[in-house]
Amino acid sequence: MSEEVTYAELKFQDSSETGNIQEFDQVGVKVYLTSKIEMEKLEKLQNFKDKLQSNVSLQLIYNMDNLKKIRNLSSTLQEMATKLCYELYRKEPEHKCKPCPKEWMWHKESCYGEFKKYETWQQSDVTCSYHNASLVKIKNKSVLEFIKSKKFYDYWLGLSPREDHKPKKDLDETIISSDWFTRNTSDLNGRMYCGYIYDSYVYYDFCTSRKNALCKKLANSVKIESILMNEEPDGRM
C-alpha cells in the first residue's frame, strides 16, 4: 500500500503588515480619545454659556424691576412735590415753585393768564398764541368752577365765531357744547359773532368789538428743588 502524503499550505502574515494594523489601531484609539476630550470641553463650554445666559436674563429682570420701582418712586415724589407746591402757591401766589409764568394763575395742569388790552377777538387770539397759549375753553366741571370763582368780566373765550347771534347762556350749560371747537379764523369779518364771558354767563358780540383776553396753556412740571429752597420768588416770565 502506497502512502499518501497531504500537503497543507500555511500562510503567515508579513510582520510589517501586522505592525501597520497595530499602528492603525493605536491611531484610532488616539483619535477616539481626542474626540472625547473635545466633546467634554464643548459640553463644558455649552454649560457655561447656558449659565451665563441665565445669569444675564436674571440680571435684566432685576434691573427692569429696579427701574420700575425708581419710576414709581419718582412719580410719587413728583406728585407729592406738586401738592406741596400748590399749598405754598395758595399762601404765596408767586412762590418760586409755581409752574406758571409770573402773574399767571395756576389750576390743575394749566396756567391761566388775563390780558386787559381791549382787543378784537382775533387780536386776542393772537395775543394768546404769542404766549404759547390759546383762548380759554371750558370743557369740564373743574375748569368751570375755577373760572366762575374768579369773576371774569368782558373776556373773549375760545368759542367758534358764528354768523348768527346767540342769546346769553349760563356758563354751566356750555361744558358739553361743540362750540368750543375754534375753526379757521382767517376769514373773520365784521358781521360775525364771538363769545365772551361776563361773570357766570356767556354772551355773543361782534368779533370786531374790543374786550380782554383770557388765555390758557399747559403748566410746567413742578421742580422739586424749588420747594426745598427758601429764596424769594424770582421775576421770571
Task: Characterise the protein shown here.
- The protein is of the alpha+beta class and 237 residues long.
- It has two domains: 81 residues; 114 residues, Mannose-Binding Protein A, Chain A.
- It contains four helices and eight strands, in the order αββαβαβββββα.
- Strands 1, 2, 3, 4, 5, 6, 7 and 8 form an eight-stranded mixed beta sheet that branches.
- The chain is elongated and about 105 Å long.
- 17% of the residues are buried.
Fraction of residues in β-strands: 15-25%
Q: Quickly give the CATH architecture of the largest domain.
A: Roll
Q: Which fold name fills CATH's third level, the topology of the largest domain?
A: Mannose-Binding Protein A, Chain A
- Structure classification: alpha+beta
Average pLDDT works out at: 81
Layout of secondary structure:
Layout (H helix, E strand, L loop, with lengths): L14 H77 L13 E3 L2 E10 L1 H10 L3 E2 L5 H10 L2 E4 L12 E2 L22 E6 L2 E6 L4 E8 L5 H5 L9
Parallel strand pairs: 4-8
Antiparallel strand pairs: 1-2, 2-8, 3-8, 4-6, 5-7, 6-7
List keywords for this structure.
single chain, 237 residues, alpha+beta, Mannose-Binding Protein A, Chain A, 2 domains, eight-stranded mixed sheet, 8 strands, 43% helix, elongated, disordered C terminus
Write a brief caption for the model.
The protein is an alpha+beta fold and 237 residues long.
